[in-house]
Specification:
The protein is mainly beta. The strands form 7 sheets. Strands 2-3-4-5-9 form a 5-stranded mixed sheet, with no helix packed on it. It has a 4-stranded antiparallel sheet with strand order 1-29-28-27, with no helix packed on it. A 4-stranded antiparallel sheet has the order 6-7-8-10, with no helix packed on it.
């Protein structure tokens, strides 16, 4: 059950990395990592207690390098991947969470990344526990995760002068990945590690995040530095514009995430310190009909069913992290650079419409 008001948790150091614990099905849990250049960093395991309406830190774990991203296994709640940085070098490692506070237990490094190339994201498939992806500035890596560690099984260059920022794995299939690169986004077939489609100018400025709709293999949301979110039909790339454009931010959109349980709900976070929630029933209705017909241009005001329904203003710094609960469909967490994590709930008046 989601709280009726925002609940927060504060870390002592700056933070950017946030992930839901995918394998935990009894309680809403998240993992957050700190990003301090001079201090020893930590990874905290947080759990929402709905009876007390508070966030409890169940584990505080040492992770000395800066934590830039986190991905969790869909099968083992105590296994995760971190993207880390130290003295200008980047890497990714597989870890196990111990039963008590202390250092994380390293299971394996994920070798093979380019020297002096920033690793932007780690992705772990929500249905396939052996499939993980790391995204560098200009390279995509596919990993096979097992009890023996992590094995590099495929890689592909992003393309000349194309800088990748983020990505998403398609939940319905285990062979499709989307990346946010340049002012557009790219689609990849992970079997051949080949780019199979691209929207070159999805936004007027760089795209920072992409997210697949959970019940449709051909719907994707993008967010960019132009302060906009756009929703796309992947069957019409290059021939049509976005199905829907959503505003509401005044600076870069760092995260744009569709709810894993409800296509109608999209949450976004930005450098403007705000978090927005959008309700898109008309788009979800089109999605359910599986139509190729492009919806007409929609006004983005309170009278139209597709648009922003709530703004959360609990943060005082850029909000880099946003992640829906893996258990509660009405709850999502956001993380700002000052180390403040906030649990946000979908308003009741929106719930009743779904």
């Amino acid at each position: 059950m989601a709280p009726d008001h925002s609940v927060s948790y504060s870390l002592k150091l700056q933070s950017r990395a946030l992930a839901a614990v995918q394998a935990e099905k009894n309680a809403s849990q998240w993992v957050v990592g700190t990003n301090s250049l001079r201090e020893e960093n930590e990874v905290h395991v947080l759990e929402y207690d709905h009876d007390q309406e508070r966030i409890a830190c169940t584990r505080s774990l040492l992770h000395k390098p800066e934590v830039w991203d986190i991905a969790t296994s869909c099968q083992q709640s105590d296994v995760l991947i971190t993207v880390w940085g130290e003295a200008g070098n980047y890497g990714a490692s597989l870890w196990r969470i111990p039963q008590t506070d202390g250092p994380l237990e390293k299971l394996a490094d994920l070798p093979g990344h380019q020297t002096n190339s920033a690793i932007r994201r780690a992705l772990w498939h929500p249905q396939q526990p052996e499939l993980a992806i790391t995204i560098e500035d200009g390279m995509l890596h596919r990993w096979a995760i097992s009890d023996q560690g992590a094995q590099l099984v495929g890689q592909a260059p992003a393309g000349e002068l194309l800088q990748l920022w983020s990505g998403a794995l398609q939940p319905q299939q285990d062979q499709i990945c989307a990346t946010a690169g340049g002012n557009g986004f790219q689609l990849w077939d992970l079997r051949s590690m080949a780019c199979t489609g691209e929207q070159v100018a999805a936004h007027k400025m760089p795209v920072r995040d992409v997210s697949f709709c959970p019940s449709s293999s051909h719907r994707l949301v993008s967010g960019g530095d132009d302060c906009k979110l756009r929703l796309w039909d992947l069957r019409m790339l290059g021939s049509h514009g976005p199905l829907l454009e959503l505003g509401g931010h005044s600076h870069w959109v760092w995260r744009a995430q569709v709810s894993p349980m409800h296509d109608q709900l999209i949450a976004s976070s930005s450098s403007d310190c705000l978090v927005n929630l959008f309700h898109t029933p008309e788009i979800a209705k089109d999605n359910a009909k599986d139509t190729l017909e492009q919806p007409s241009s929609r006004a983005h005001d309170l009278e139209h069913p597709d648009g922003k329904v709530h703004t959360y203003d609990e943060h005082e710094d850029s909000v880099y992290g946003l992640c829906w609960s893996a258990v509660d469909p009405w709850l999502f967490a956001t993380l700002s650079y000052d180390g403040r994590l906030v649990l946000n709930s979908v308003p009741k008046n929106v719930k009743y419409k779904i």
